[in-house]
Every structure is written in structure tokens, then in C-alpha cells.
Write a structure and sequence with these properties.
The structure holds 2 protein chains of 2 kinds. Chain A is mostly helical. Chain A contains 3 helices and no strands. Chain B is mainly alpha-helical. Among the domains of chain B are: about 450 residues, no CATH class; about 40 residues; about 70 residues, no CATH class. Chain B is built from 35 helices and 4 strands. In chain B, helix 1 packs antiparallel against helix 2 and helix 6 packs antiparallel against helix 13. In chain B, about 50% of the residues are buried. Chains A and B meet through helix 1 and helix 2 of A and helix 31 and helix 33 of B.
């Protein structure tokens, strides 16, 4: 059985890159969020790939943690977006820059 | 009582504190507190004085020495004394040595008080060890300064007259510091009495201090109080150029210059001798000469430098030539202050210090010459400036400077007791003059110009009587106090003129006589102008005078011309002290009648005999050294000659010149007074104005009135120089120092302005920056990875395996994770 490590890592890298670019360029907060999830999942993929390759469990367990955190983050983040939307009637992140120096 | 002498300054400090804290709420009570405290200290001082006197008397006489001493006091010659001494047994000789050379075995031995007051060492009252720095100075010499007081004859005399004159002045001030028709208290009444009490506390500390440092506390304390009290009317103008506050600053700055010298002198003495305790220094200097450090012998370089520097301090405090300019302007303070601080007590601190250190000064003849010249010159210059002044307090101020000059002249010819005696008598008659002048000023609503007075004797009998007595005293008319003290000084200068450098001292003596003439004239002038002749005041009040007075009763610094018919004698608290002092101006001189004038047996030269153990130590030591005394076993001649010399100073066997000199000085005084009376007696100023028109006299008048242009010269040299330096310093501060500080601030501000653009509020940009940062860090790790992997260049996987500790990880990659080989039995059954 050939190792799936390399293709998996390439896939993870691609996902991560897409996520990064999304975080950079997307203006909509929801899209931004989705990109962040993409990055997290790219990391998860890398974790499980290595875990499988090395035959250890810690990678898989870490993924569970990441997913938990991501879910919590999504919960908090979406709540923030809703609050933001209520206040400003839009969630275009580039226009929310009141904390500039 | 000597042990409790610390109560004296503490009581006054307590009064100062109480008044300072109570402030306005106290009202009249402030005055009572200070007066009460002052009178208490007077009582304590009396007790201390009596005890010192008793101890002085109680020194037992030693057998044959007793006879020798008696003989000496009655004028035996040195040769016969020497012969007599040599016939004495060893023990008696030793006893005489101990008595006259004042060598205490161990100066540091703890003694509550020393019964060798006779030897001048007096009572040492240690309170606590104040400063103790173990050996770091000059090798391993520790700096130990105890907070200690010292009581001897000199101290007790000062205690007596300071507390006595002080009490009278305090009582006087309770009457003087009221204004207007309703006798409203001065708004700063409590403040005034707080300062006065603080002054008294400092002055007591100054004279009681057993070492330089404690004395210095008092020295600075009186300077501070002087500053505060000169500037008491800080919101008023004193003269065209100076406000009262400026006058205070002037006094303070002039004293700083002096104190600079004083401190350097102290440092020099400590550097050389390793101690600042007066008695230890004196004991060291009168001890073994060979044990002294270099430069501390007779006319040594260091002792000369130290005494000169200390004398600079004295010229500041006692208003002598380079630094006397502050005293005439110190009259900006209220009159009681002028009387107490700037005439009777504080300004004599410099003289006190010289007398206290007479051993040092006698060992530095070069300094003594300087002291004599400065003293004589100051006496003359100030007396000359006093001739033409118009403000009565100004006249008295120059007179004070002049009399202080006399005192230094006495010190300069080595007759310290005579100088102290003049301090003593001067305290009474000058305080009297100032207080009487204050009474006039008070009665005339702050009119100080004697040209605008006249004929006041009829209206103010008590004041006039006291002022007249004091004038006779300062003019040196027999039998008033000033006659005895001034005559003794002039006589001592004359005596000095019989020795080496006769011409020099003779010139000083003539200068002293000339000064006496000027003194008599200007004092007579002030008396005649103020009290005699036809008045130059308005005869009757103008219509609105009363109204104006009523309106600004407390705004008293505006002059209201008081009409002659309105002038009243001042109230009892003012006149009482003046009259007492006036009578004392007659009496106190009798304490020191030289035998040459009037043989009174034991009553001759009481004052000098009392002080001799302290003030004649230097003269005795120098005389003994000339006869070979070096601190070890004293050759017989040294002691006897020292004793003879000390008695010579009392002039027991030289009646003729003393009588003649006395007659001359009285005659000079009478001439001065008579001339003043002739010139001003009619109450009209026409004669003096006529004289002043003559060209030569006109020039002299100008010199005198401007006080030798001393202030202008200082303005031109020092003030301008300092102003230039200040301007440069200001420029440096504003441009260089501030430039650097502000530059740093501006730079940061600039940087901040640039960098704030980075924080643009765009979350995505922050994300980008963070991403780039993480990439950089990662890149760094990746690049440094080969090193981390070690020399065998494992792959990441291999390295990870190694870390995980499994040699054969690849074999289990496809298998489930290995379970424990022997699972728990319960699990297996299940």
C-alpha cells in the first residue's frame, strides 16, 4: 500500500492556500469565515495524514480538538456578525475599520 | 543647670512651632507665647550663668601658686614671677601648668560637665551622636559628630545678653506690631513672633554648639530667620530699587558668599585635624606641636587659610567689608528685628566665632592682620557713610557696621575679651537706639527721615531720654557703657602699636580715633535732628489727615504726615524696654572698668577676668610657645610669661597712657557731639546745606550718602557678571538642554505619526501581516532545519520516529496501534 502522505499534504497545502487567499480577498464576513474554516480543515488534513503515516493517535485527537474549537469559533463569530449586521446593516469587513490609528 | 541647657533652644523652637501652627487663630496670644518662652530662657540663662560663675570661683587655688596669682593680678613683673615659680615644688608647678596651659588629658572622655571651666574648657553637654561615618576620610579616620552643646564663660555671657535683650525686644514687639488708631494687630502678627522665636532658637544653637556643625545649624538658622524677617513686609517697597523681599534676598545671598568660606574653612580644619569639635581642636592645637599635621603650627599655611576662610564667613554674618552691603538694606524688616537681629545678636555671630576660635586665630598672625585691617577699614567706611544718611534706621545700620568693625579691630589685635565686651555693651545701647528709633517711627506713622523730625524730645520724653543715653554711650562719653568698651579696644590697638609693626597699628589706632569722632558726630546729628530744636513737622493736623488715617488704618506703609501736635509718646510695652535699655547703656560698662582708670580692687575688669579663661587662651598659648612650650613638659618661663602677658592685657602696671587715651577719646566724642549740635541744634538745616554746597564737601557728601558707591560697584561687577552668566546658562538650558529633551520627544512623535498609518483598522491587512510574519518564522525554521536534524541528515519522518522512540515505526504504520500485550483479564472475558 503506497503512502498517501504526499498527495494528502499537497491537497492540504492547496486548501490552505485557497483559505489564505480567501481571507485576504473576500470582503464578505461569511466568506471570510468559510475561508478560515478551509484553512483549519487543511491543517486537520495534514494532522490526520501524518497520524496515519506514523501510526500514532495524537494527530487524530488533535483534529477533534481543532474541530471543537472551530465550531465554538463559528458560534461566537457568527454571533458577532449578526450583532454587527444589526448595528451597521452590512458585514463587509473592509468597511468596518473604526479602530484605525 | 548646665546639663539642662538644651532646654533653651528647645523652648524657643517650641514657641516658634506653636506660633507657626496656630498662626492667625492665636491673635494676641502669639505674642505672649514668644515673650513667655523668651523670658523663660532668660531665667534659665541666668541660672546657667550663675553656675558657671560659681564653678569659675570654686577652682581651688594651689598653695604657693595662689600667692603668685594674686601677685600677677596686681602687676608683678615677669622676672620676679619666674623666680618665684622656680622656687615652687614640682607638684605646684604641675598644678600651675594644668591651670594655665589648659591641657585636658582626654578631650573625648565623657563628662557631663567639666569642672575645669577655669581652664576654659567648660561644660560639655552631649545630647546624642548625630553623625557617625566610620573611617573613610583620610585613611581610617572616622567622622563623628555628636549633637552637643558646650557651656563656658563666653557662652554664658552670650546667653545672658541675648536672652535679656531678646526678652525686652519681644515685649517691645508686642506693642510695636500694632497699627492704626484702634491698635489692630499686624496681619502677620503670629508669623512675626514665630520667626522671632525661631531666630532665638537658632541663635542659642549657634552660641551653644560644641562643634562647627551644630554651630553651623544655628548659623544658617539665624540667616534664614534674618531673611524671613527682612522680607516680613514682602508686599512692600523698601527703596526705589529694592522691595523688602529683595532686601531679604540680598542679605541671604551676601551671607551665602560668607557661608561658602565658612564651610571651606570647616572642611579644611576637618581635613587637617579630623575633628570639628571646638574644644578638641583647641586642645589639639595647644597640645604637642610635633603631633600636629603640617601647616598647623604657628603661622602655618593651613591654619592661616582656614582662619581666613572662616573669617570670610564672619564678614558675611557680621557685615564686614566685602560683604557688609546687606546690612543697611536689612532695615527693610520691622524695627524690633533690626534691633535684635541686625544690631544686638545675629551680627555678632562672626565675632563670637572668632572669640571661640581665638586659639586658632592667635596661631595665624597673618589672618589677624587681615582681621584688624578689615575691621578698622569697615569701622571707618561705615561711620563715614553714616554721616549723611537721612533715614534714622539707615544711620543706625551704618553705625552697627561701624561698631562691628571696632569689634573685629579688637580681635585683630588679639584682644578678644575687649571685642566681646564691645559686643556686650553694643547689644544694649544699639538695641536701645533701634528700639527708640522704632518708637519714633511708630509715633510718626512710618516716617524715618530725620530731616522731617525735630523737637520730639518734648513730646516723647522717655524715648528721647533713652536715645540720648544710648547716643552718649556709643559716642564714648564717660561713664556710659560705650566709653569703656570702645576705649578698651582703642587702648589695645594702641598697645599693639608699641610692639613690632608699630606704624601699622598706629595707623589703625588713628583710624579708630577718627571713626570715634565720626561716630559721635553722626549719632549726635541723629539725636539733635530727631529730638531737639524746632520741629520740622507740620504744627497742626491738616483737615483730612484723621479721615485718611481712619480709612487705611492697616494700610500703614503709606506715609501720613503726622502733625507735631498729634505726636504722642508710645505705649508702655514700647517705652518700658527702651528706658530699661537706656539705663543699662549707662550701667553695663561698669562691669569692666580698667584699673588704669579707677582702681577698684576686685571690681576692676570683672568682665575680662571672667572671660579670660576662654578668650585669652590663644594669647597664652602663643606666648608660651614663644618661650619654648611645645605641648610636652612646659618650661617654667612659658607659663609665667603667659600669665604676665595675660595680665598685661589688663593693663595693671601702665596707668599713664590709659588715662590719657581715655581723656583723648572722650574729648573726641565731645567734639563730635558738639559739632553736631552746632550744625543742627537750631532745628534748621540751613547750616548743613550751606556746608554741603562747598565743592570738596559736596563730593565727600556724595561719597558718604552713596555709601562709597559700594552697591553700584557690586552691581557693575558682580551683579552684571552674574547676569551675563545667567543669560548664557538660560540660553544653554533653553536651547541645548531643552533642545535635546524636546528633540527626543519630537522624534518619538514623528515616528508615531508615521507608524500609526500601519494600524488602518482593516482586519484583513492585519491578517496578511501576521501571515507574512508566520511565513518568515517558518522560513527561518526550515532553513535552519538541516542543522537541527543533525549530521546524519535524517528526514523529518525519521527524526519524528526517533523522537517517538520506536525503532521500527514503519512496520506498524499499516497496523492498528499496538495495544498492551497483556490486556486486563476482565476486558478479555468481556
Amino acid at each position: 500500500m503506497t503512502s498517501l502522505l504526499q498527495p494528502n499534504l499537497i491537497l492540504a497545502t492547496l486548501l490552505f492556500t485557497i483559505g489564505i487567499l480567501g481571507v485576504m480577498w473576500k470582503r464578505n464576513a461569511i466568506a471570510l469565515f468559510m475561508s478560515v474554516e478551509l484553512m483549519l480543515n487543511a491543517a486537520n488534513l495534514a494532522f490526520v495524514s501524518f497520524a496515519h503515516e506514523l501510526g500514532i493517535m495524537s494527530g487524530g485527537i488533535l483534529v477533534l480538538f481543532v474541530m471543537t474549537v472551530a465550531a465554538a469559533e463559528a458560534g461566537v463569530g457568527l454571533a458577532i456578525f449578526i450583532a454587527l449586521f444589526r448595528a451597521r446593516r452590512h458585514i463587509r469587513v473592509d468597511e468596518h475599520d473604526t479602530l484605525h490609528g | 543647670m548646665i546639663d539642662l541647657v538644651w532646654l533653651i533652644p528647645v523652648i524657643m523652637a517650641g514657641a516658634a512651632l506653636a506660633n507657626g501652627l496656630g498662626c492667625r487663630k492665636l491673635g494676641k496670644i502669639a505674642g505672649y507665647i514668644s515673650v513667655g518662652a523668651m523670658i523663660t530662657t532668660f531665667v534659665i540663662s541666668c541660672m546657667v550663668f550663675l553656675q558657671v560663675r560659681d564653678i569659675t570661683k570654686a577652682i581651688p587655688h594651689h598653695g604657693g601658686e595662689h600667692a603668685a596669682e594674686q601677685e600677677a593680678h596686681h602687676g608683678r613683673h615677669g622676672a620676679s614671677m619666674l623666680a618665684e615659680y622656680e622656687t615652687l615644688g614640682h607638684e605646684q608647678q604641675e598644678a600651675i601648668k594644668a591651670q594655665y596651659l589648659f591641657v585636658r588629658a582626654d578631650p573625648k572622655a565623657p563628662k557631663p560637665y567639666d569642672t575645669t571651666v577655669r581652664g576654659g574648657l567648660g561644660g560639655h553637654v552631649p545630647l546624642y551622636e548625630w553623625i557617625n561615618i566610620p573611617g573613610v576620610f583620610r585613611g581610617d579616620r572616622p567622622l563623628t559628630i555628636e549633637f552637643a552643646f558646650h557651656v563656658d564663660q563666653l557662652t554664658s555671657i552670650f546667653l545672658m545678653f541675648i536672652s535679656f535683650v531678646g526678652s525686652l525686644v519681644f515685649i517691645y514687639a508686642t506693642g510695636y506690631m500694632k497699627e492704626g488708631p484702634h491698635n489692630t494687630l499686624d496681619p502677620g502678627y503670629a508669623r512675626f513672633f514665630s520667626y522671632l522665636a525661631l531666630f532665638a532658637a537658632s541663635m542659642y544653637t549657634l552660641i551653644l554648639g560644641a562643634n562647627f556643625v551644630v554651630m553651623f545649624i544655628g548659623w544658617e538658622g539665624v540667616g534664614l530667620c534674618s531673611y524671613l524677617l527682612i522680607g516680613y513686609y514682602f508686599d512692600r517697597q523698601f527703596s526705589a530699587k529694592l522691595s523688602c523681599a529683595d532686601a531679604g534676598k540680598k542679605a541671604f545671598v551676601a551671607n551665602r558668599v560668607g557661608d561658602f568660606g565658612l564651610m571651606l574653612g570647616m572642611f579644611l580644619l576637618f581635613w587637617g585635624l579630623g575633628t570639628l569639635d571646638f574644644q578638641t581642636i583647641i586642645t589639639m592645637l595647644s597640645g604637642d606641636v610635633s603631633a600636629l599635621p603640617a601647616g598647623f603650627g604657628y603661622n602655618g599655611a593651613i591654619i592661616t587659610a582656614a582662619t581666613l576662610l572662616l573669617f570670610l564667613g564672619a564678614t558675611g554674618k557680621s557685615a564686614q567689608i566685602p560683604l557688609f552691603v546687606w546690612l543697611p538694606d536689612a532695615m527693610a524688616g520691622p524695627t524690633p528685628v533690626s534691633a535684635l537681629i541686625h544690631a544686638a545678636t545675629m551680627v555678632t555671630a562672626g565675632i563670637y566665632m572668632l572669640a571661640r576660635l581665638n586659639v586658632l586665630y592667635m596661631l595665624a598672625p597673618t589672618t589677624l592682620v587681615v582681621v584688624a585691617v578689615i575691621g578698622g577699614a569697615t569701622a571707618f567706611i561705615a561711620a563715614f557713610a553714616g554721616l549723611t544718611q537721612r533715614g534714622i534706621k539707615k544711620i543706625l545700620a551704618y553705625s552697627t557696621v561701624s561698631q562691628l568693625g571696632y569689634m573685629f579691630l579688637a580681635m585683630g589685635v588679639g584682644s578678644f575679651a575687649a571685642g566681646i565686651f564691645h559686643v556686650f555693651t553694643h547689644a544694649f545701647f544699639k538695641a536701645c537706639l533701634f528700639l527708640a528709633a522704632g518708637s519714633l517711627i511708630h509715633a510718626l506713622h512710618h516716617e524715618e527721615d530725620v530731616f522731617k523730625m525735630g523737637g520730639l524730645a518734648k513730646k516723647m520724653k522717655g524715648t528721647a531720654f533713652a536715645y540720648g543715653f544710648a547716643t552718649l554711650a556709643i559716642a564714648g562719653i564717660v561713664p556710659f557703657a560705650g566709653f569703656f568698651s570702645k576705649d578698651e579696644i582703642l587702648y589695645n590697638v594702641y598697645t599693639a602699636a608699641q610692639g613690632s609693626n608699630g606704624g601699622f597699628y598706629c595707623a589703625l589706632w588713628l583710624l579708630g580715633l577718627l571713626t570715634a569722632l565720626l561716630t559721635a558726630f553722626y549719632m549726635g546729628r541723629s539725636f539733635v535732628l530727631a529730638f531737639l530744636g524746632k520741629t520740622r513737622l507740620q504744627e497742626h493736623p491738616a483737615h483730612d489727615a484723621h479721615q485718611a488715617e481712619g480709612e487705611d488704618a492697616h494700610d500703614d506703609h503709606h506715609h501720613h504726615a503726622v502733625a507735631y501736635s498729634e505726636v504722642h509718646e508710645s505705649p508702655l510695652p514700647i517705652v518700658g524696654p527702651i528706658v530699661i535699655l537706656g539705663i543699662l547703656s549707662l550701667v553695663v560698662g561698669w562691669l569692666n572698668i580698667p584699673e588704669g582708670l579707677l582702681p577698684l580692687g576686685d571690681f576692676n575688669s570683672l568682665f575680662h577676668h571672667f572671660l579670660a579663661p576662654v578668650t585669652d587662651r590663644g594669647a597664652l598659648l602663643v606666648a608660651a610657645q614663644q618661650y619654648g612650650y611645645t605641648g610636652g613638659a612646659a618650661p617654667a618661663g612659658a607659663i609665667v610669661v603667659g600669665e604676665v602677658l595675660s595680665n598685661n592685657a589688663l593693663a595693671t602696671n601702665w596707668h599713664g597712657p590709659e588715662l590719657i587715651l581715655a581723656i583723648v577719646s572722650v574729648a573726641i566724642g565731645l567734639v563730635g557731639l558738639g559739632f553736631a549740635f552746632m550744625l543742627y541744634g537750631s532745628g534748621s538745616l540751613a547750616k548743613s546745606e550751606c556746608l554741603a554746597r562747598k565743592p570738596l564737601l559736596r563730593n565727600l557728601w556724595n561719597i558718604s550718602f552713596s555709601a562709597w558707591k559700594w552697591d553700584d560697584v557690586y552691581d557693575a561687577i558682580f551683579v552684571r557678571m552674574m547676569m551675563t552668566i545667567y543669560a548664557i546658562a538660560l540660553w544653554f538650558d533653553q536651547n541645548i538642554v531643552d533642545g535635546v529633551v524636546n528633540g527626543i520627544g519630537l522624534l518619538n512623535r514623528r515616528i508615531g505619526i508615521e507608524f500609526r498609518r500601519l494600524q488602518n483598522g482593516q482586519v484583513q491587512v492585519y491578517g496578511l501581516v501576521m501571515f507574512v510574519g508566520v511565513c518568515v518564522v517558518l522560513l527561518y525554521f526550515v532553513l535552519s532545519l538541516p542543522q537541527a536534524l543533525g549530521e546524519n541528515r535524517m528526514t523529518v519522518t525519521e527524526r519524528t520516529r526517533e523522537i517517538l522512540g520506536s525503532k521500527n515505526v514503519s512496520s506498524i504504520t499499516t497496523k492498528p496501534v499496538a495495544l498492551p500485550e497483556q490486556p486486563p483479564t476482565t476486558l478479555a472475558k468481556h
